[in-house]
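Sample pair:
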Amino acid sequence: MRLDTLKDKVALITGASRGIGRASTIAFAKEGTHVVVTARNSDELESLVKECQALGVKALAVPADAAQEADVLRVKNEALKAFPQIDILVNNAGVAKYALVGEHTAADYDWMMNTNMRSTFLFTHAFLPEMIARKSGAIIIVSSQAGLRGFAGEAVYCATKFAQVGFAQALDGEVREHNIKVSVIAPGGVHTDFAIGTGRTRGEPKLQKMLEAEDVADAVVFAAAQPIKSRVMLVGMRPMSESL
């Protein structure tokens, strides 16, 4: 596959300050892709921008809450002031709290559903019109194996990730005729700060056996770099330590 198809394109990555989002941003920058990064932590975003600029690409940080419509529209406005268009949208912002259904609160549900699914809708809704108008674009959703199969102790998280997968499948049916590619990346456990304190404990041995963020980032770039006549619908990934 010719990854030079990504050179000088522009990718916007949500949840970019850490983990999969950060690794994906750097992976795109290494391919010559300019980047717009957004998350709530402005200091981490600025550090990421400097690292990308050192790789020779243009980079813009826009701190924002991905679940708030006004913030998303502000990200769009600033991104389109800096760049003529967004070619690749990576909906990566996500959170989890692992617990039994009876142990969750309505606030837990809202936090996970809004961060994971509402953000996916808001960013897609914001950038889709321009993609349709020029009949070009890629929308990549970082979901999870929890979006393909239900796991005890993760019911609410699974609901948010199943929602992303269903959204992606329906969206593909709407936008394929406009030459817009929709892809889902569904990793199993990934060794990041994800869910630390809300179901995972830093330093626990099983984390060391999980996928690395860079492994998932490679899949994100793979989906974005597909030839003009091809689209990747789903990339399922699991660490060797996890059974099917």
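The longest strand covers residues 180-187.
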